[in-house]
């Protein structure tokens, strides 16, 4: 078969294109189908978005439904941009914007998210670095990239999903490793790109967010090779920028939907916060940082902290007039609109939620622009300033009135302890010489894979391979499988057969 004309479609290992005998048409559509057919995609239906799928008592988004919505929004953005003659030459100059590439990357972007959502990501990172001695730790985006390039099996070889260069590059929201690629590392830029800075409490740990572990660095370089000279080494491709923007849009909208349905978002509390700031924003702006911290629970103080944070981190776009307009628009749509009538599960209520979601999605997709000289903190594809501020305010509502709740914190602390106990139990099992033949086959295979990736002279090579295998194994479980496996390992489960070893 001839090589695809688009160099981004080539698997750059050896310069040969992958076989497409199973599906005619675009290689990028074949990528999409491979991702959807993967068991790693199916498992996302049992992985937390914000709260565990079975923990709310009502239907809320999980990682699967989130990924589907991100793909839908991302494709809408890509189709709009490619149909607009204003952007045609610029998009071509930057490397292209194919709707199939964008959709495939959006479907794959969360494959590596572990049980229990972002909490699980933080816990696994801490355990990987501090308990298992892995310098790269754990990062959900890097784990997604590892799955599609290394740990998923197709045919006789462990080559991941064998995706095209364009789709792999489009998955890279953060096209750098934790510590040393590219050189100079983007965390040393002033300001650093979004996600590249080290955590304030651990400045020597490298970037907080990154797109690949060192074991996948060669693949990252090859995926990005067709874009050399078009974009900076640390900059997203246009297609990655579209996917990232779509992720932000979907997250901002559907989390508000979820917690309205569940009854967590209450009109009175949201109204008090937004309207207090609107009445007294002149007073709040004059308050010093220490004084503002002293009135943290006063209505209006939290959103004033958001306004200041946006100026500190994103001064390239933060604007007080746009921020005030965004607060007002969210107040009208949310306080006087969606939250004005409690959700009762009726057809009318569902239709109202659907209209709310569609209205916001259309507003955001229509506000997408392209620039050839983005801020270091932005991609080439971005929202217009008014809508960018609206996304920040919607996300604030979710953080302030959902993530900060003590009852959610109580639930998450239990999940964190569960993951810690599961990692410890698996480590002890791997160290038991009498149990080697009875290890879960998947875990055994992952140890062999991790060992093969390490240089023969790597200090404590076996120990590090076991640590990475445990992280890979736990990250591939659903929430329910993680709970069931710990129950079995701790002797609490009365069931002999469990689905915990499926992946």
TrEMBL record:
The lineage of its organism: Bacteria, Bacillati, Actinomycetota, Actinomycetes, Micromonosporales. One of its GO terms (biological process) is dGTP catabolic process. Residues 63-252 form the HD domain. Residues 178-210 are annotated as: Disordered. Residues 178-191 have a biased composition (Basic and acidic residues). It comes from Micromonospora olivasterospora. This is dGTPase. SUPFAM superfamilies: HD-domain/PDEase-like. PANTHER family: DEOXYGUANOSINETRIPHOSPHATE TRIPHOSPHOHYDROLASE (PTHR11373:SF32), DEOXYNUCLEOSIDE TRIPHOSPHATE TRIPHOSPHOHYDROLASE (PTHR11373). Keywords: Hydrolase. InterPro entries: dGTPase (IPR006261), dGTPase-like (IPR050135), HD/PDEase_dom (IPR003607), HD_domain (IPR006674), PHydrolase_assoc_dom (IPR026875). It holds the Pfam family HD. One of its GO terms (molecular function) is dGTPase activity.
